[in-house]
Amino acid sequence: MPLNPLISVDELHRRMEAGDGIRLLDVRYRLDQPDGTTDFAASHLPGAVYVDMDTELAAHGEPSEGRHPVPSREVLQDAARRWGLDDGDAVVVYDDYRSVAAARAWWLLVHSGVADVRVLDGGLSAWTAAVLPLEAGEVVPTPGSISLTELSGDIATIDDASAWPDRGVLLDARAPERYRGDTEPYDPIAGHIPGAVNLPASDYLDGEHFVSPEGIRDAFAAVGATGETPVAAYCGSGLTAAHTALAGAVVGIDVTVYPGSWSQWSNTPGRPVATGPTPGDEIS
After folding, report:
1. What kind and span of H or E run contains 94?
2. What architecture does CATH give domain 158-283?
3. Which one of the listed residues 120, 235, 247, 255 is annotated catalytic?
4. Which CATH superfamily is domain 6-129 in?
5. CA pair distance 49, 24, nearest whole angstrom
6. Which Pfam families does the record cross-reference, listed alphabetically (predicted)?
7. What pTM value is reported for the model?
8. What pLDDT band is residue 1 in, cutting at 50, 70 and 90?
9. Distances from the Cα of 184 to the Cα of 179, 187, 188, 259, angstroms
10. Residue intervals in the chain for CATH 3.40.250.10
11. Please, which residues have CB within 8 angstroms of residue 198's CB and are 6 or more apart in sequence?
12. Residue 247 is among the residues annotated as catalytic for this protein
């Protein structure tokens, strides 16, 4: 993985102008608009290939597996070849909302053996604000031949997540009101995993951009995640947890992702639920 998993608009533009052959992946996805193909066709970075979250970066199963289970190696490899990736390619991923979807692609590719994957800091909005070239229409690259490994390293199961607070720091990356259990718009039960501490992405973002490395370290340290003990993260469906892992990678803190996240936990009978503003205020 590159020392800094983020790349600035200026650096990316320079490398594209120099003909570095960077592979660009556009991962536009939101819960309220999961299909980003129309927006992609209207405007995207030159040469970028559209990546579909639901069919290429996630599997589909029972509710007890969570909303975005990780895809098999075969599914992800077939998708990566459709994107035109070959072994040794440098890859830059972006989206149009806080780099959350892009972080999912980054995390999957890094843990499948792709060495050079970076996320465009600020995403599409930063590129547009810099008045840099865009293009429209479909992009169909020549199929690639990349070989991916089985997903490995820094991945937690539901049982790992349950036991994690006893050995380190478990981060809940959702909004504070969902962590506290005040509201739950997507899953059947409101609350958080007992022992988890709340670190919403807004604590280390400035709009669409990540804050400085010092600011990220401060945000992590404020909830006890200094890297001196193991750190793991979960969210609603596993996407923002990968974003937390990306932020950790910027400052050299390894963050294990629990992909099933709250959508799996809350759909698994017998799992305890904590509510309130602290790790274990009220447990049921």
Report:
1. strand 91-94
2. 3-Layer(aba) Sandwich (3.40)
3. 235
4. Rhodanese-like domain (3.40.250.10)
5. 6
6. Rhodanese
7. 0.96
8. very low
9. 9, 6, 7, 18
10. 6-129, 158-283
11. 171, 172, 174, 176, 179, 192, 223, 277
12. no
